[in-house]
Amino acid sequence: MQAAFQDSVHDSQQCFRHILKAMSEPGTKVTLPSIDVELPIANATLSILLTLVDQSTSLWLDDDVRQRALLDYLDFHVGAVVTRNTQDASFAVVTDIGAIPDLTLFSVGTEEQPHGNCTLIIETSFQGKLSRLTGPGIENDVELALGLPEPLLDQRQALSVLAPCGIDMILVDGNDVIALPRTTQIEVY
Amino acid sequence: MSDPDYNFAYLDEQTKRMIRRSLLKAVAIPGYQVPFGSREMPMPYGWGTGGIQLTASLIGLDDTLKVIDQGSDDTTNAVSIRKFFRRTTGVATTEKTTEATLIQTRHRIPETPLQKGQILIYQVPIPDPLSFLEPRETEARKMHALSEYGIMHTKLYEDIAHYGAILHTYDYPVMVNDRYVMRPSPIPKFDNPKMDNMHALQVFGAGREKRIYAVPPYTKVKSLDFEDHPFEVQRWENSCALCGADNTFLDEIVVDDHGERLFACADSDYCQTRQAEQGGQR
Ligand SMILES: [Zn+2]
């Protein structure tokens, strides 16, 4: 079995603080420490799973990565309950952004329990059209390339009427992470 | 060095993960109370076990921790929490607001404006602003779900009708991001304006009531008020007798055996820093 964090206590603490910073300051890019493994998911995706997921959370993986080596690794190091049902997932990993399921297939939480939503970890490359982000955690506004296809942005926008329910996204490009909590408004140029 | 008999920061890793997940949700839904599986801590509930569990889930070797109680670093509560984290983590502690990465607080916000990257961790005794008005938790949850806060406005307006003013001088309710009414914990309402658009992340932990909530940086926090009765903070006729500040929250303190009193900043670090600066200028 390939290794995980070298020092699980301190490495997961560090990763958490980076993820928390990303979630608190949407549009701020944070870089997670590298892990030396050969798996079909990005380094930061793996770090996020090692930091946040365990046997009390259900995890959905897209077809691209639902492979023996990764499942065995996650079973050993994370103990996640892997589900094939998007609606059950508390975390979901999307590595093939072109084949991302419709966002409405994931849980958005309920009016009384809006925290029951799914957090989507989406692998992309931070390139392409610039987006302008506003909302809590952002001083005035921030402009950057997210690399998200327009239909996905439209679906996300459509969910905003359900606030405070919604989907939180953690975007991953290699070791880099940008978070988009449900409260962030995105305007594409 | 930390004591090897403890897990780092006392909590086990699974508990930290659970709290960390709840904290991310709290940040994503500003002002909403996320339930969490609060753990027993080696101190009684009144000692800020909610804030302590948050700090334990946040803290790392690179952090510098400040702990305040009513603005002071020297009270029993602050000293024992600081000792607890020094023993279980070995991390650096400070009394300087500007040097701290994490500030755990009971009942005050430091006078020195907080910076981006800092995290303010509040100890919360009672998290739900509706609990005195609607004791049934299921009903209170519905009101939060629908953002139905008429009951709260009615109560505040009754205060004005009977007493000429809103009675809360501590734990004065606020509206977060135009969506959730939130208790800021028993800080004086003097501190409420500091919560609005703060550069630092604010997180709140209630141990006994098992709730975590948060306000991200640069988020609107508005104290509830009425057009004909706008929100106002306490003002003092005196300035601080020690540093001369005329814009801080003052405590009245007895200075000698004859009952002589004076007013001084409740925030001891702020006051001492100002005194040192003035000493240096002379
Ligand atoms: Zn003073």
From TrEMBL, chain A:
Protein's UniProt keywords contain Lyase: yes
Coiled-coil annotated residue ranges, if any: none
Pfam families linked to this entry: PhnH
UniProt keywords, alphabetically: Lyase
Signal sequence range: none
Record's keyword annotation contains rRNA-binding: no
Alphabetized GO MF terms: lyase activity
Gene Ontology terms: biological process: organic phosphonate metabolic process
Cited InterPro entries: PhnH-like_sp (IPR038058), Phosphonate_metab_PhnH (IPR008772)
Protein name per its UniProtKB record: Phosphonate C-P lyase system protein PhnH
Organism: Leucothrix arctica
TrEMBL record, chain B:
Annotated function: Catalyzes the breakage of the C-P bond in alpha-D-ribose 1-methylphosphonate 5-phosphate (PRPn) forming alpha-D-ribose.
InterPro entries: PhnJ
Catalytic activity, reaction form: alpha-D-ribose 1-methylphosphonate 5-phosphate + AH2 + S-adenosyl-L-methionine = alpha-D-ribose 1,2-cyclic phosphate 5-phosphate + methane + 5'-deoxyadenosine + L-methionine + A + H(+)
UniProt keyword Transmembrane helix, yes or no: no
Protein name per its UniProtKB record: Alpha-D-ribose 1-methylphosphonate 5-phosphate C-P lyase
Stored Pfam families: PhnJ
Molecular functions per Gene Ontology: 4 iron, 4 sulfur cluster binding; alpha-D-ribose 1-methylphosphonate 5-phosphate C-P-lyase activity; metal ion binding
EC number: 4.7.1.1
Gene Ontology biological process terms, A to Z: organic phosphonate catabolic process
Organism annotation: Leucothrix arctica
